[in-house]
Amino acid sequence: MPKLTIEGGHTLSGTVTASGSKNAALPILASCILLDGQSTITNIPYLKDIVIMLRVLNILGLRAEYHNNNTVKVWNQKKIKHIAPYDLVTSMRASFFVAGPIMAKTGYAKIPLPGGCCIGSRPIDLHLKGFKALGASINIEHGFVELKAAKLVGTRIYLDFPSVGATENIMMAACLAEGETIIENAAQEPEITDLANALIKGGAKIKGSGTSIITVYGVRSLKGIEYSVIPDRVEAGTLLIAGAITKGDVTVEKVNNNHLEPLNQKLIEAGLEIKQGINSTRVIYKGVLNAVNIETLPFPGFPTDMQAQIMALLCTAKGTSVIKETIFENRFMHAHELKRMGAVIKTENHHAFVYETEHLSGAEVKITDLRAGAALILAGLVARGHTTVYGLKHLNRGYDNLPQKLRSLGGILFV
Ligand code: EPZ
């Protein structure tokens, strides 16, 4: 089984570059179903999840391939097929982003139900609520969702929860609907704005992305784009925490500081110094790390995708931190593995209480999900002795060469 061993106790310092955002690239690639002709998408991270999305697009009739490690070219000239492949959609939930585009483009989509994952049941009811409101008829049986819509007509859609995926899927479908669609209580994550900007380059008429009210005016067709994806705020945040947890001094370049604000404010509250350049953020350890309280919330609140990583950091803080996870129902699994490294954490439903501990000690640990994997590696950087992390397949889905980036900052990691 592939594993990664980390030698703890080395202070990280220096400069590293963030990759493009996985969670922006995936919906933008799915949106190429709507874009006639050729598209070139740059600043794409080199990840397993992206490879899976490219395979889905090729099965649907597009030609989509990495042109080099960070550029994807897509040719959309043939008739789009209606059925997305079961094995791929269930192996990568974000493949469900093709549902809205296929339905809008062809009038019929048959997509496997994506199913849950270890952090939660991951329902799609809000996606379907939006599709139905746009005029689609929905049939769920044999593990598939069938969407039929001879014509989509714009309407008002209220999201009970500002779901990122539902906002993206509905926004993509609405681009080819007749008339105006208003999405209320829309998600405001930077990845939504990035998708909207990509679609606008293709001729879509979208206003309000990044706010809770998004308005889409349908058009008859969209054309291929050249577009560069935003930096990955979660990878950048993970690298900043690597600097903080090892009491170092790390600068992450090619970031969007606005996207890092929720994390940066918490790092400052914990006693770290944050210095921002035009597109860089630097974290400097100043001799103390205080406990802080965290509540994960939809953007611009503290991101749930950084919860595991900051929990690892707070295991080394002075005092007791309280972490409340409000987005997913089961996103504390990393706590069990951190406790095997000597962390003192008590979890109760949506709360985790992280107590002061003398030090973390290296151990053999198992990755359960992508961000938990990052948290265990961060803990291994500061734990006494060696930490061996198993389950690297989860990590490689969402981080573009994280071990190498940590080595470039002085971390000692080997396979
Ligand atoms: C996106 O997932 C991200 N994935 C997740 O990142 C991220 O954690 C999440 O947004 C929240 O920010 C991608 O962008 C590919 P949601 P998504 O729909 O769209 C409930 C990572 O590590 N909900 O905003 O699936 C749901 O149960 C991944 O990179 C419904 O109830 O997230 C959850 O509690 C993990 N009905 C909450 O909303 C729905 O129809 C947030 O889900 C949809 C969602």
Count of domains:
2
Radius of gyration: 21 Å
- Topology, number of strands: 24
Give a quick account of the main beta sheet: strands, pairing sense, barrel closure: 5 strands, mixed
* Total helical segments: 14
In the CATH hierarchy, the architecture of the largest domain is Alpha-beta prism
CATH superfamily of the largest domain: Enolpyruvate transferase domain
Distance between the termini: 11 Å
**Shape field:** elongated
pLDDT averaged residue by residue: 96
SS-derived structural category: alpha/beta
Strand content: 25-35%
> Low-confidence spans: pLDDT under 50, at least 5 residues?
none
Reported by name, the CATH topology of the largest domain is UDP-n-acetylglucosamine1-carboxyvinyl-transferase, Chain
By CATH reckoning, the class of the largest domain would read: Alpha Beta
Ligand catalogue:
ligand EPZ
Q: Work out the helicity level.
A: 25-40%
Question: Would you kindly provide a written description of the structure presented here, covering whatever features stand out?
Answer:
- This protein has 415 residues and is of the alpha/beta class.
- The mean pLDDT is 96.
- The relative contact order is 0.15.
- The chain is built from 14 helices and 24 strands.
- α1 (22-31) packs parallel to α7 (190-201), α4 runs parallel beside α6 (164-174) and α11 (333-340) runs parallel beside α12.
- The chain has helices at 22-31, 48-59, 86-91, 99-106, 125-133, 164-174, 190-201, 233-245, 257-269, 307-314, 333-340, 370-382, 392-398, 402-408, and strands at 3-7, 13-17, 35-42, 63-68, 71-76, 108-112, 137-141, 144-148, 156-158, 180-184, 205-207, 213-217, 222-223, 226-228, 249-253, 273-276, 280-284, 294-295, 321-324, 344-348, 351-355, 364-366, 386-390, 412-414.
- The strands form 6 sheets. Strands 3, 4, 5, 13 and 14 form a 5-stranded mixed β-sheet that branches. It has a 4-stranded mixed β-sheet with strand order 22-23-1-24, with helices on one face.
- Bound molecules: ligand EPZ.
